[in-house]
Each structure stands twice: as structure tokens, then as C-alpha cells.
Give the backbone structure.
Amino acid sequence: MAGEPQEDCLFCKIVAKHVPATIVRETDTTVAFRDINPQAPTHVLVIPKVHHADAARLAAAEPEIAADVLREAQAVADAEELDSYRIVFNTGSGAGQTVWHAHAHVLGGRGLQWPPG
Ligand code: 5GP
Ligand code: ZN
């Protein structure tokens, strides 16, 4: 069934606390934790607890939880006292997606160029 934990998914393991992570926020439907390879002073990943391969599939299957991810991105920005920040959903390997469990990158704490690379 869509959304169920996948045995071979790193982020499902972080949700289950089988893999350690520096968790900064957790709700009934989401977990936010620091990226292991930060690209900015604040680099937090916000993930749904349910497994979907990318943000679009999450939004199609469980739109309320997709909205929870966006609300949590703002909550992370508030907690980190970020006036400006960027939310990135890499979608597809050509865009740099390497983990096939939907996740929002929340980046801030430095100037962010536009357009991005
Ligand atoms: P993607 O490249 O799929 O958009 O983002 C995956 C992110 O997960 C990368 O920024 C990568 O640094 C991060 N990441 C990969 N493995 C781990 C891990 O074991 N722990 C944490 N906290 N982040 C991870
Ligand atoms: Zn997963």
C-alpha cells in the first residue's frame, strides 16, 4: 500500500529511529533533521513519515501531509531564526535526487544565489 515503510529506505529507517539523525523537530506526520552533508549554515531535511518516492507523488497521494511538510519547513526556519530561506525538492536523478523518499531541503543562514546551479 502506498505510504508504507520500505525496508531498504534510509529515511524510513530514520523515521523508525533505526538510523540515528540529529532531529530538530518531529510531528505526528513529519520529521525534520540536519543534513549529514550541509550546504548552508542551516540545512535541514523535512520528510513525511509515510514513504513516497518524491514530493509530487506525496502530494498526489496524501496532499494534507505534503502541506504538513511545507508548514514544518516554515517552523524550522522560525526555530533557526531565518528571515529568508530556500525549500528545494530535488526530483529525479538528473536534478540530484539520491534518496527516494520525499524530502524538502530547507537551506538558509547565508546568501542564496538565484538562479541556483
Ligand atoms: P537528495 O540528494 O536526494 O535531494 O538529498 C538527500 C540528502 O540526504 C543529501 O543532501 C544527503 O547529504 C542527505 N543524507 C544522505 N544520507 C544521510 C544520512 O544518513 N543522514 C542524514 N542526516 N542525511 C543524509
Ligand atoms: Zn522511505
The first strand starts at residue 23 and ends at 26. The CA atoms of residues 43 and 107 lie 5 Å apart. Residues 6, 9, 11-12, 51, 101 surround zinc ion (ligand 2) (CB under 6 Å). The radius of gyration is 13 Å.
